[in-house]
Amino acid sequence: MVRAKPQPCRRLAAPKPSCQMASRSTATTTEFRIGGARVLLVLTGSRDGTCDLLFRSLRDRAFRFNIDIYQDYRVEFSAREWLIEDPTGRRITSANATCAHWWKAFNFTTESDNQYVTEEVKYIFSEIYNWFAVREMTRGNPPHFHKTKGKLMLLEVAQRHFKTPRFFAGWKFDDGTVRSWEQRAVAKSLTSGLITTDKVLYTTEVDTDRLDRSYPWFLQERVESAADVTIQLVGDRMFAFSRSRVGLKGLDWRREIFGPDHPRAPWVSRELSFDERKAVLGFAQDAGVDWGRLDLMETDEGLVFLEFNANGQWAFLDQDGSAGLLPAVVSYLVDG
After folding, report:
1. How far is residue 333's CA from residue 42's CA, in Å, rounded to a whole number?
2. pLDDT in tens, 222-247
3. DSSP secondary structure code for residue 265 in this structure
4. 136 pLDDT exceeds 50?
5. What is the pLDDT of residues 35-51, one digit of tens each?
6. CA-to-CA distance for 146 and 18, rounded, in angstroms?
7. What is the C-alpha separation between 73 and 67, in angstroms, rounded?
8. For 154-180, how does the pLDDT look when each residue is reduced to its tens digit (9 = 90+)?
9. Is position 44 within any domain?
């Protein structure tokens, strides 16, 4: 198995204690015990299906802290120590916590309709994660990953290892900026934010002559492909899957996956060649990651890199469990 180099900015040089099955205290308030010591903290929300699936396997080896129902928890954070207690009386503390995994916590809204309260809660959530980060006790990628390594910078990194489509981001651009491209342009969102009609901008082919150039655009050269390929990094392992584009209506498979009555073309496990694995490993090392999902397209000339999702959904890829993705994720989170 090809191994990615450890990330010195987020990993302890010395081995960490393994997260073993917790045993319950006989006291009214239960503190997790992991090999007599510590436990994984997952910062997330209560309505995430991937996290639900994960905790069916993690069980008492981890503690789930849901930001959207923050008032169901007791939280104390001070200069000396911190603790979080859930509605059942189970606790995780600065004394028994071994590592933290950030899973889309800020994708959820809190129970409060007071913006000040919401921002304060989010700040405390961030500081709890930061407590782990400064001690190099995290798994996965931080919530601010794409603030410093955005899609444009990662495309630059990917160019060292993969074929990439030509791209452009900006506004008030000249006519010749994209007219030299061999293929037509597609428009994509950099932030996945909602437009004014509360809809998402999926990958869409556009006529650049008709674009309002006073608006910011992220444009890529269209890639002709028979299949989408996605590769989930899990520590030193790579899980590759492909999905046929035959019969796909439009360019973006997410439009059909998330739409009603969509045809469920399955994601199937895919072997990576030696050169493909080398390219993935090179990208991971240069980007400083051992977790996340690479999105690519299969062409006659090989894989074409599109983007990297630092905390992209992964559970839908291996629904029958045949690829062993879920056990690998559990092992990565609790054993390192």
Report:
1. 10
2. 888 889 999 999 999 999 999 988 76
3. P
4. yes
5. 444 699 999 999 999 99
6. 29
7. 9
8. 999 999 999 999 888 889 888 777 766
9. yes
pTM score above 0.70: yes
Claim to verify: residue 92 and residue 183 sit in the same structural domain? no
Cα torsion for 152, 157, 163, 168, to the nearest 10°?
A: 20
**Sheet of 167-170: strands edge to edge?**
167-170, 217-221, 185-188, 204-206
Coil, helix or strand for 278?
helix
Residue 85 to residue 89: CA distance in whole angstroms: 6
80 part of a folded domain: yes
Residue 191 domain boundaries: 166-221
CA 325/CA 239 separation, integer angstroms: 7
- CATH code of the domain in which 308 resides: 3.30.470.20
Q: What's the number of domains the chain is made of?
A: 3
- Whether 210 and 248 share a structural domain: no
Rounded CA-CA distance 133/11 in Å is 9
**Phi/psi at 7 (5° precision):** -95, 110
> Pick from 238, 243, 229, 325: which is nearest to 278 by CA?
238
Name the token pair of 181. Answer: 């491209």
- Residue ending a domain, among 136, 157, 181, is 136
